[in-house]
Design brief:
Elements: H1 10-23, H2 27-45, H3 49-56, H4 68-84
Protein name: CopG family transcriptional regulator
């Protein structure tokens, strides 16, 4: 078990005292719950690269052939040919 010695501002100490009065819990229980809640909040914010790309709108922002990554040169060539064929 880790023992922590810390100083609290008067405002924070008042909040802690209020929580203790309302819940009738020991300070260590209150702090454990607070740390656990904060941990879950932060951990829940961590996103994968895929989630970040999906949220950015980059994934799925265009429609194309399903195998574009393997035949992109011919697709681009056809597109340019049709666009500039009149030249």
């Amino acid at each position: 078990m880790l023992e922590i010695n810390t100083k609290l501002t008067e405002k924070t100490a008042d909040k802690l005292a209020y929580i203790q009065t309302q819940t009738q819990e020991e300070i260590n229980q209150i702090l454990e719950l607070a740390i656990d809640n904060y941990y879950q909040k932060i951990k829940g914010k961590q996103k994968t690269s895929l989630e970040l790309l999906e949220e950015s709108g980059l994934i799925g922002c265009i429609s194309a052939e399903p195998y574009l990554s393997t035949n992109y040169k011919s697709v681009i060539g056809e597109g340019l040919e049709s666009k500039y064929d009149h030249c």
